[in-house]
Automatic annotation (TrEMBL):
UniProt-listed Pfam families: Abhydrolase_6 (PF12697)
InterPro entries per UniProt: AB_hydrolase_1, AB_hydrolase_fold, AB_hydrolase_sf
Protein name as annotated: Putative Lysophospholipase
CC annotations in GO: membrane
Gene3D superfamilies listed in its UniProt record: alpha/beta hydrolase
Lineage, uppermost ranks: unclassified sequences, metagenomes, ecological metagenomes
Signal peptide segment: none
Organism: mine drainage metagenome
Length: 292
């Protein structure tokens, strides 16, 4: 009889083999495993221009609570050259394929699967909640369904335009430029990559109008007054899910100073001592009684 956990280790090795020599060691796919299949495996998906180093503290905290945890590197992220232009190649199909491969891996490492993602990773977690069965809990955190304060229709128009006009790389902070932190993340983003993420957001939103999500439970979390994404569109998506009978909630994190990223300890505005307790508590029901 085959051993699912050993099969999972082999699948993990294949996933980590995608982290070539140009990927920072801390930026590759990371795993915190108990040496056996656990009641829960949690997949963590990072934000645009970041990488699994974003979860360098959060992943171990989940592991200490008893879960097997995988922080997955998304395509074209984590390069040692922070000014790389490779991220402009990102396609929505690559993101979905990464999600599907990770879900297969998680099913081998845990009896149940939870998916949590931040920003772009949050959009991907919401896509998984809508379209993929086998997800016990999906936690989209600060998902990008509309950029900045734009509405979703305006963001969709921006997406369509970004696919037509030449790509542009935009500094996250035009004053700091290369000095932008987190130090392992890219200090600028390509408009083509944003368009790829918006395609996933659009597909999720449209499907939610017609059908209930397949995930058993969804807990969307946003940062109040988020400067990077439009929280109202996330709230509207949750309302659509609820109208379809889904067990879905919408919750706000209050962060001071204002910070789009509640995970990365290397973010200059990080206040993980105030954000982690709430984010970790979302898994309490699934981890109740699980040995640490």
């Amino acid at each position: 009889m085959s051993d699912p956990f050993q099969e999972g280790l082999a699948a993990l090795a294949r996933l980590q083999a995608l982290d070539g020599s140009t990927i920072l060691p801390a930026a590759g796919t990371q795993a915190w495993l108990h040496g056996e299949r656990r009641p829960l495996c949690v997949l963590l998906f990072h934000g645009l221009t970041n990488n699994p180093a974003q979860f360098a503290a959060f992943g171990p905290a989940l592991y200490e609570r008893g879960a097997n945890v995988i922080a997955v590197r998304l395509p074209h992220h984590g390069e040692s050259d922070r000014l790389t232009t490779k991220l402009a190649r990102l396609r929505s199909t690559e993101l979905v394929a990464t999600l599907d491969n990770a879900l297969e891996l998680a099913a081998l490492l845990g009896e149940r699967t939870a998916v949590m993602g931040h920003s772009t990773g949050g959009t991907l977690a919401a896509y998984g909640a809508q379209f993929r069965s086998g997800i016990e809990l999906a936690v989209p955190v600060c998902p990008g369904f509309a950029v900045l304060r734009f509405s979703r229709p305006m963001s969709r128009a921006i997406m369509l335009g970004a696919r037509i006009v030449p790509n542009v790389h935009i500094w996250w902070d035009p004053e700091l430029r290369e000095s932008f932190r987190p130090a392992a993340a890219y200090p600028r983003f390509p408009t083509r990559a944003v368009a790829a993420v918006m395609r996933i957001a659009d597909a999720t939103f449209r499907a939610a109008r017609r059908a209930a999500p397949l995930a058993k439970k969804i807990r969307a979390v946003v940062v109040a007054r988020d400067p990077a994404v439009n929280n109202l569109e996330t709230q509207r998506l949750v309302e659509r899910w609820r109208r379809r009978g889904a067990e879905a909630t919408y919750e706000e994190l209050i962060t001071e100073p204002l910070n789009h990223d509640p995970f990365d300890p290397d973010s200059p505005r990080a206040r993980t001592e105030s954000t982690y307790p709430m984010l970790l508590s979302l898994f309490d029901d699934l981890l109740s009684g699980t040995p640490s």
